[in-house]
C-alpha cells in the first residue's frame, strides 16, 4: 500500500512539473458578443461574416473579432550547481555526504546456534539442586 502511494505521488509530481513548464495559446473568434469557436494550438474557425464585411463597402465597422490568449509556462526550473557561491556549494556537498552516510547499514551479526533447538527440560533444575537466587 505504501509503495503504491509513493508511486502514484511521484507520477502526480512529474505531471505537475510537466504542466507547469507547458505553454500554449488559446485562439477565440467572437461574432458580435457571441463566442463562435475556441481553439488550442490552432487558429479558430470564423463564422464567415468577416468576408462579407470586406466585400460590402457600406459597412465600415466589423462585427467579428479574434482574441488570442497566451499562457506562458515556467522557465526557471534548471538550477545549476555552479550558480551557487562557495559557501552554498560547501554546505550542499557536506549535507549530501552526511545524509548518504547516515543510512549506512550495520554489519550483519553471525549467530552460530540459530539452527539448533534448545534441549528439553524434564525437571526444574533449580528445585532439584535447591539453588535459589536471593
Automatic annotation (TrEMBL):
<dbReference type="InterPro" id="IPR058512">
    <property type="entry name" value="DUF8199"/>
</dbReference>
<dbReference type="InterPro" id="IPR058060">
    <property type="entry name" value="HYC_CC_PP"/>
</dbReference>
<protein>
    <recommendedName>
        <fullName>Secreted protein</fullName>
    </recommendedName>
</protein>
<dbReference type="Pfam" id="PF26622">
    <property type="entry name" value="DUF8199"/>
</dbReference>
Amino acid at each position: 500500500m505504501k509503495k503504491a502511494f509513493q508511486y502514484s505521488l511521484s507520477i502526480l509530481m512529474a505531471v505537475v512539473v510537466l504542466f507547469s513548464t507547458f505553454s500554449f495559446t488559446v485562439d477565440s473568434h467572437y461574432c458580435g458578443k457571441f463566442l463562435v469557436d475556441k481553439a488550442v494550438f490552432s487558429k479558430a474557425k470564423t463564422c464567415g461574416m468577416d468576408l462579407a464585411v470586406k466585400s460590402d463597402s457600406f459597412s465600415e465597422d466589423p462585427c467579428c473579432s479574434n482574441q488570442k490568449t497566451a499562457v506562458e509556462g515556467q522557465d526557471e526550473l534548471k538550477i545549476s550547481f555552479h550558480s551557487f557561491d562557495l559557501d552554498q556549494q560547501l554546505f550542499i556537498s557536506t549535507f549530501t555526504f552526511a545524509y548518504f552516510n547516515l543510512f549506512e547499514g550495520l554489519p550483519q551479526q553471525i549467530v552460530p546456534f540459530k539452527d539448533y533447538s534448545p534441549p528439553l527440560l524434564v525437571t526444574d533444575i533449580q528445585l532439584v539442586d535447591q539453588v535459589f537466587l536471593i
